């Protein structure tokens, strides 16, 4: 398994990552709308969004451009072009089969 595939496997193993990708594939969302749609707690959802942003799949849109800045306008999250490619890649059965086989053949 390539290093990129291993990184992807770690990413999609995180809580809410697949759900966030699915929601953002339908269009941009605020954190509040994602929390409502996914019935997610704030901390784990924020961790998933940060992991996706670090992977280059999600972009945060606000006036400040910082994860730490406070603003009264809602922050919107959307997929980047790489994020859209990732969603398409993950929609293929052969990708999931390869990940499953990797786990199946790992030593306990």
Q: Could you give the topology of this structure?
A:
Blueprint: H1 3-12, H2 17-25, E1 29-30, H3 31-38, H4 42-55, E2 58-61, E3 76-79, H5 81-90, H6 93-104
Antiparallel strand pairs: 1-3, 2-3
Notes on the structure:
The chain has helices at 3-12, 17-25, 31-38, 42-55, 81-90, 93-104, and strands spanning 29-30, 58-61, 76-79. The protein has one domain (3-64, 73-104): Arc Repressor Mutant, subunit A, CATH 1.10.10.10. By secondary structure, it is mainly alpha-helical.
Summary, kept brief:
The protein contains six helices and three strands; from the N terminus they run H-H-E-H-H-E-E-H-H. With 108 residues, it is mainly alpha-helical.
Poorly predicted runs of 5 or more residues: none
- Broad CATH class: Mainly Alpha
Total of domains: 1
Number of strands: 3
User: How many H/I helices?
Assistant: 6
InterPro entries: WH-like_DNA-bd_sf, WH_DNA-bd_sf
Keywords:
single chain, 108 residues, mainly alpha, Arc Repressor Mutant, subunit A, three-stranded antiparallel beta sheet, 6 helices, 58% helix, elongated
